[in-house]
Amino acid sequence: MWIETGKVTREELFLVTKLPPARMRAASVRPTLDKCLRELRTDYVDLFLVHTPFGLHERGDELLPRGEDGNAWLDLETDHVAIWKAMEEEVDAGRAKAIGVSNFNQRQIQRILDNCRIKPANLQVELHVYMQQRPLVEFCQENGITVTAYSPLGSPGSERIYNSVGMDVTFPDLIANPVVVEIASRLNKTTAQVLLRHIVQRGIVAIPKSTNEERIAQNIQLFDFELSAEDMAKLDALDRGEDGRIIDMKFVLGVENHPEYAW
Q1: Are strands 74-75 and 55-56 parallel, antiparallel or unpaired?
Q2: 155-202 pLDDT, tens per residue?
Q3: Which H, E and C letters describe 74-104, residue by residue?
Q4: Which residues form a coiled coil (predicted)?
Q5: What dihedral do alpha carbons 191, 192, 194, 199 form, nearest 10°?
């Protein structure tokens, strides 16, 4: 581990882990974080997120347990308030510096705000130029909750997840959008840099995924330029609202039948 070799200190890292759908019970919060801390070889994480608003029954180490009908084994008694109180205890214990949620909608976040001692520090959601999440972002910013955008460049790699459960999907190619291409060409930037800068310039954290070393480096180089008001407006106009959603979680077969399915 780099910490042990002295290449980096723990304080220089920002470690995030999540409570997965099959651990969505208050009693599972501590043992789940215990396991994460052991595997990360640290005594705390910087951010501990509830991964999804819906819960599944726990069965061994299965990530997405299924029932006999082949659909997800839904736990219909998911209790966000009870889970959140258990999350707060991990902050009290110093094992999580901050706690937050992922894939929650405004109603679900408000329920936590109405019943919490420690409010969510962060919301992680799908957010990109085709789905800009403006009302949700505004709500979070008004309540002092930072927003993190996952799939900020779209999510072409996720097609195989849907395909693996027999769903034939084709996701849009944000990188090839002519408006994005024109701005990138004019500014001598990559299309990915333009898409990411659009998000960052709105005060939102972006977490692009790449395994290509050159692209990883490019995706960090966002702070030597700004998009003009005109270019921001052009990109704003690409928003498709809910129709722009790519990751609807329906690869978890039957998830839309859970009372806490967010969309």
Answers
A1: antiparallel
A2: 878 888 898 888 888 899 999 999 999 999 999 999 999 999 999 999
A3: EECCCCHHHHHHHHHHHHHCCCECCEEEECC
A4: none
A5: 150
Dist CA 158 CA 219 (whole Å): 20
Going by the annotation, the residues of the binding site are 51
| CATH code of the region 2-257 | 3.20.20.100
- Burial (CB < 10 A; 0-12, 13-18, 19+), residue 255, is buried
Give CA 136 to chain center in angstroms.
14
Contact between 55 and 25 (Cβ < 8 Å)? yes
Which residues does the annotation place in the binding site for substrate?
51
- Burial tier of 87 (Cβ tally within 10 Å: 0-12, 13-18, 19+): buried
The string of DSSP codes covering 19-48 is E-GGG-SHHHHHHHHHHHHHHHTSS-BSEE
Question: What tokens appear for 69 in the block?
Answer: 């009908």
Q: Where does the chain show beta strands of DSSP type E? A: 16-19, 47-50, 55-56, 74-75, 99-102, 122-126, 146-150, 205-207
Give this prediction's pTM.
0.94
Distance linking the first and last C-alpha atoms of the chain: 40
The total of other beta-carbon atoms located within 10 Å of residue 243's CB is: 8
User: If you ran DSSP here, which 8-state letter would residue 251 be given?
Assistant: T
Closest by Cα among 95, 85, 93, 1 to 48: 95
- At 54-105, the pLDDT tens digits run 999 999 988 899 988 989 999 999 999 999 999 999 999 999 999 999 999 9
Strand, coil or helix: 212: coil
Length of the chain (residues): 263
